[in-house]
Amino acid sequence: MTCLCLGSKLKESDKVKLMVKLDLSCLHGIKDDMDFCCKLAKFPIAPILYLHQVQLAQAMEDGSGNGRPPATAAAWNFEPNGALLGLTALSVRGVLGRVKAGMAAGGGGDGGGGGGRAVIPMGHGDPSVFPCFRTTADAVDAVAAALRSGEHNSYSSCVGLEPARRSIARYLSRDLPYELSADDVYLTSGCAQAIEIICSVLARPGANILCPRPGYLFHEARAVFNGMEVRYFDLLPESGWEVDLDGVQELADKNTVAMVAETAKKLGIFVIADEVYAHLTFGQNKFVPMGVFGSVAPVLTLGSISKRWVVPGWRLGWIVTSDPNGVFQRTKVVESIQSYLDISADPATFIQGAIPQLIENTKEEFFEKTVDVLRQTADICWEKLKGISCITCPSKPEGSMFVMVKLDLSCLQGIKDDMDFCCQLAKEELVILLPGCAVGYKNWLRITFAIEPSSLEDGIDRLKSFCSRHSKPKVHRSLET
């Protein structure tokens, strides 16, 4: 072809791609490389070339790769992003790592003795390792079928495979007064990436975001990393963890970009609804998605298959624009999400390919069984915690996998705060709890009850022994009061 010139620096035998120079002087009706590729793509048998604004690296002319050793620098002129260095303190993984470090250093058993006892994890959010929380065979079969088909070994589009997005739209529409479409759904690598994307999309100079306390500090970590201010509104423990709406209105201002439907409408902001624990309810209050109120205020719904299907390692989540009035389109939020996904990693294509069969074939009995086990373990947790004097549980859990309990440090000796409590508990009793500081609630504890019932009972018994061992004598306590 006279209009294409192969670069002499590139060897065809060494490449799966070739860089070629386009001679526009040989062509008519072609403005540039992008125009060339767009018009070429209209031919059904044409390859698609991605050449727009691609530059050959200077290293091809004068760097490593031409056989010459790289130059030695007098001093290294780089450093890491300092904003990352403190973010470990704002992650559940980071905090649990600190708790477990003391256990590893001490070997376990300062108080009760390790004695070959198993570690009991009651601070995590991943019950998939326990037999009573194994995912359904229908989900495994769906992934196996997607792999064996050979149809999902390539990259997907940046927003995700259309059949998967259409299936998720239908699945979520069951609970809404309107129908979602595939165009409302954007697939992500788990719900964590969905949070990352939304915080990046919202970030602008001076922006702030309202987050619940207690909450999930990953929201704060991503917001802080993107230069946003985080403001907290309280969930009220004495009212079943309801939102303090008065507090929300006091916190919001003209720079608040996101936060609860009528309140959001009044303030001119939208709602981010992290619904990764959707439908995992077992009390009197049923799950109602925030998208139900999408016509009042636009809602960005974040979710995944991680919790309901108990497969967090499969890393398949979504962002859904629950916005029947099209506010996100007019404000270019949708365009910004798509732009971010263009420069972001996709979830594994074969997991995307499995989604239609996974959703369609999973039987309701599997979901009911999971909720029944959670109800049983929540009951165990509620009843057994009543016997520990330094711990108060304000309300019986009716959903999710966790319960928040208040720690009364005045009853204990040798314990500085919630972090110290959890570190010493891990070291002495091999029980892992999450200190409340990891969810924005100092001197509280978050206890996971999504484990085997027998392990849960053993774990709370060990917790009780630890508290008894560190309890102040009653005479001492009466003198203090």
Automatic annotation (TrEMBL):
The gene is OsNAAT5. It comes from the Eukaryota. The keyword Transferase applies. This is Nicotianamine aminotransferase homolog. InterPro entries: Aminotransferase_I/II_large, NHTrfase_class1_PyrdxlP-BS, PyrdxlP-dep_Trfase, PyrdxlP-dep_Trfase_major, PyrdxlP-dep_Trfase_small. It comes from Oryza sativa subsp. japonica. Keywords: Aminotransferase, Pyridoxal phosphate, Transferase. It holds the Pfam family Aminotran_1_2. CDD domains: AAT_like. GO terms for molecular function: pyridoxal phosphate binding; transaminase activity. Residues 252-463 form the Aminotransferase class I/classII large domain. Belongs to the class-I pyridoxal-phosphate-dependent aminotransferase family. The keyword Manganese does not apply.
